[in-house]
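Standup, Tuesday
Yesterday: got the pipeline producing structure tokens again.
Today: sanity-check two examples.
Blockers: none.

Example 1:
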Amino acid sequence: MLPPPIPSAAINLVAERFQAIVDELRREAWRIQPYDEATAMRLDDAATAFSDAGTSILQHWLRDAGILPPR
């Protein structure tokens, strides 16, 4: 069974925006890594944490929408 189109489109948009932020954090980490390794590592850690949080938020949203089964 496919999700309704409107929630599906909204979920995809949110997922894309989360991924865009993660990608930007990682690009910045790569850019500054040669001269500021500590900050680059913190940015990479932030990207990982943001990605994990986004995944969790999206999973809750999918469960609330009935797209994923409850735990």
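Example 2:
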Amino acid sequence: MVIPGGTSVKELSDVFGAYVHKPRGFRDSKGRRVAYVTFDGTGGVIAYRDYYTDVDARLEE
């Protein structure tokens, strides 16, 4: 899933609200949160910011 610019993760409760665990944010090397992951044991959602286009080796790991 792609998070549109200007949208807060809290505004995406329809996507993340169905899961038991709250979304975990991942930061790039500049400290910006660029990806979020949530799961429930059977499935999950990976969401990233639409402005994230750089490849960050640390994030990819």
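Quick observation on example 2: The chain has a mean pLDDT of 80. DSSP finds two helices and four strands in the chain.
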